[in-house]
Design goal:
CATH architecture: Roll
Strand content: 35-45%
Number of domains: 1
Strand order of the largest sheet: 1-2-4-5-6-3
Number of helices: 3
Helix content: 10-25%
Order of helices and strands: HHEEHEEEE
CATH topology: Thiol Ester Dehydrase, Chain A
Amino acid sequence: MNSTRIVSIEQLRALLPKTAPEALGVEIVSVDSEYIVLRMPMSNRARQPLGLLHGGISMVLAETAASLHACWDVDLSRFVVPVGIEINGSHLRSASEGHILAKGKLIRRSSKLTVHNVEITHEESDRLLCLARVTNFYKVLEGA
């Protein structure tokens, strides 16, 4: 089987079609071995009933950033994939327009787990909206 070690932003972008992040308009802005940055336009899809950014969408952004980054330098052809096993977030401020950024930073990576801190910010004002921590487990897919 050909190696599918994820080592480029293009390879990560190829994982987004037909996913929740794609439906929200999430794009990968930058990535390296320590960080990932995602960007999402604020739209009706991301609002709660009072017109503000839905807290659940912040969690989707946090888990997407951490899970995508957990793929970095991993050979997915070996049937090992990162799956989120824990997430927590503190919602600090709200937003109703503009663009939302998710900035994920790798805290710890082992052969079984990754832990990321993710800051969700409003791009135009640079205001911190949410702080999240996400843990991913490297799961071996059945049949592998």
